[in-house]
Amino acid sequence: xxxxxxxxxxxxxxxxxxxxxxxxxxxxxxxxxxxxxxxxxxxxxxxxxxxxxxxxxxxxxxxxxxxxxxxxxxxxxxxxxxxxxxxxxxxxxxxxxxxxxxxxxxxxxx
Length: 110
Description:
Order of helices and strands: HHHHEEH
Low-confidence stretches: 1-5
Mean pLDDT: 83
Number of domains: 1
Strand order of the largest sheet: 1-2
């Protein structure tokens, strides 16, 4: 089943900005927030920049647009590959080796 990341992400963005009250970005858009942050960088971003927001604003949002962060696969191709890996690789390994779970050490808590 194909996903529509552009629609759901845009809805989430609009809902987030629509819920802001009493702040300069109330009812605005992501691009408005980026412009505001750039205009007030000394106050809004004294320690960090907004690389993630800039990336999001410039990333094609269609489900069949090539995505650099997915190795130039489309969103739907990456989703299918992820689902296939889970079903065809992880589940097959669990079954083949008669395992109930996969456990691994971690570096630190998130």
